[in-house]
């Protein structure tokens, strides 16, 4: 194995999951990695492990660089099994190693691995000397599980923040200056939008905490995707903007349709938005997967959701999307609802009340037509789009 060095005596020993295509209900079109790091000092340690199916490959990589009997510590920054899946097996073959983790991790690990792991609790500010390097710990509860923490090496200014600052991006080039920046930032944004978005207030607090500790970073080494070794402050600045709810001056129209009526309305709404010289995307739920749609919604200032009524309910794919959105809690957006119905005029307004109850402001009344829209209704839909665009312009002034 070719050594991949991220610092003096620090090596990448993770695995690349080239064929991962689904994570938490979202498509991962570029696969992912499960990053783990081996620190070889007077004392030796492994930071994070890998997903269970890759355990043998992972342990073999460590054995190429050091004896398993010499490992003193296994740090587990996060209990989720794409990072802790191999921890019990690694502990079994590293007889003197102590697992370092938060108290929440220790409690949760009993459910996954039983009560007999060799664990030691660490807290924010705890330091463990390895020799030339010192392990420093920062608890990060709910980023994105209660057990999460960051590991920092002050001597080399390396941060290992587990799921923070990561991406689902499988590549043979492990560092950010080796891959196309536009793809990297696209995947970093998608990761934030689909996984970390609801934690934005906590992320802002963590960024303040890091600033208060006056930590410096030469390398940010997350547990998914590419390692930031060139200008890592760029991803920190991006997280600041994203957590504050930064959005582009644009709109997105997202719809599902049975016989084309809702699609016609959606396209006319988009035409109205364009008449006000604003960019707009029009996305069908049938043709686009949830992760792409949620990322587009995250980037936009206004969102128009469109659905027909079916069996006295909004069309199921829209309900599914709304379930994702309620959990993700997008902020600083203007919402609108449109669609068509056949015999129950009250379904979409009722859905509109659910949207508002979820905390999504919807200043315009629901736009709906009975069956296929005629010329007057198409004109009204276009005017609806113009009204939505004017709300975006007013919000930007």
What does this structure look like?
The protein is of the alpha/beta class and 397 residues long. The chain is built from twelve helices and 23 strands. The chain folds into two domains: 5-243, Ribonuclease Z/Hydroxyacylglutathione hydrolase-like (Metallo-beta-lactamase, Chain A, 4-Layer Sandwich), CATH 3.60.15; 248-392, Flavodoxin domain (Rossmann fold, 3-Layer(aba) Sandwich), CATH 3.40.50.360. Helix 8 (261-275) links the parallel strand 17 (248-255) and strand 18. Helix 5 (181-196) crosses helix 9, helix 6 crosses helix 7 (233-243) and helix 8 packs across helix 12 (375-396). It is elongated and about 80 Å long. The N and C termini lie far apart (56 Å).
Q: Mind sketching the topology for me?
A:
Elements: E1 5-7, E2 10-12, E3 15-17, E4 22-23, E5 26-27, E6 32-34, E7 37-40, E8 44-47, H1 55-65, E9 71-75, H2 81-84, H3 87-93, E10 98-101, H4 103-113, E11 119-121, E12 127-129, E13 134-139, E14 149-153, E15 158-160, H5 181-196, H6 200-212, E16 219-220, H7 233-243, E17 248-255, H8 261-275, E18 280-284, H9 290-299, E19 300-306, E20 309-310, E21 313-314, H10 316-328, E22 334-341, H11 347-357, E23 367-370, H12 375-396
Biggest sheet strand line-up: 1-2-7-8-9-10-11
What does the main sheet amount to? 7 strands, mixed
3D shape: elongated
Which strand-content bin applies to the residues? 15-25%
């Amino acid at each position: 194995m070719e050594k991949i060095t991220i610092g003096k005596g620090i090596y990448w020993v993770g695995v690349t999951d080239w064929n991962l295509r689904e994570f938490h209900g979202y498509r991962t079109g570029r696969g992912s990695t499960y990053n783990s790091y081996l620190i070889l000092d007077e004392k030796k340690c492994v930071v994070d492990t890998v997903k269970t199916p890759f355990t043998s490959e992972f342990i073999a990589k460590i054995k190429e660089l050091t004896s398993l009997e010499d490992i003193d510590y296994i740090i587990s920054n996060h209990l989720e099994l794409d990072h802790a899946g191999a921890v019990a097996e690694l502990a079994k073959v590293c007889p003197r190693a102590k697992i370092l983790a938060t108290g929440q991790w220790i409690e949760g690990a009993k459910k996954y691995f039983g009560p007999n792991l060799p664990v030691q609790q660490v807290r924010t500010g705890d330091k463990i000397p390895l020799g030339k390097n010192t392990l420093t710990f920062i608890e990060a509860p709910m980023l994105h599980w209660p057990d999460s923490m960051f590991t920092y090496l002050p001597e080399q200014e390396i941060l290992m923040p587990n799921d923070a600052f990561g991406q689902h991006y499988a590549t043979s080039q492990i560092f950010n200056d080796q891959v196309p920046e536009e793809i990297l930032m696209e995947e970093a944004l998608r990761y934030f939008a689909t996984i970390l978005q609801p934690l934005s207030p906590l992320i802002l607090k963590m960024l303040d905490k890091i600033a208060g500790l006056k930590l410096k970073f030469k390398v940010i080494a997350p547990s998914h995707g590419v390692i930031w070794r060139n200008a890592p402050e760029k991803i920190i600045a991006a997280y600041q903007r994203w957590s504050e709810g930064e959005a582009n001056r644009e709109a997105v129209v997202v719809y599902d349709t049975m016989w084309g009526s809702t699609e016609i309305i959606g396209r006319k709404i988009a035409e109205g938005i364009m008449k006000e010289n604003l960019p707009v995307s029009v996305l069908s739920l049938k043709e686009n997967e949830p992760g792409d749609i949620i990322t587009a919604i995250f980037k936009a200032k206004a969102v128009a959701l469109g659905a027909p009524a079916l069996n006295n309910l909004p069309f199921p794919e829209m309900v599914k999307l709304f379930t994702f959105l309620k959990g993700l809690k997008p902020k600083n957006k203007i919402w609108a609802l449109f669609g068509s119905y056949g015999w129950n005029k009250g379904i979409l307004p009722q859905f509109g009340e659910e949207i508002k109850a979820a905390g999504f402001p919807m200043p315009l009344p629901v736009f709906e037509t009975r069956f296929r829209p005629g010329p007057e209704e198409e004109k009204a839909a276009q005017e609806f789009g113009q009204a939505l665009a004017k709300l975006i312009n007013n919000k930007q002034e």
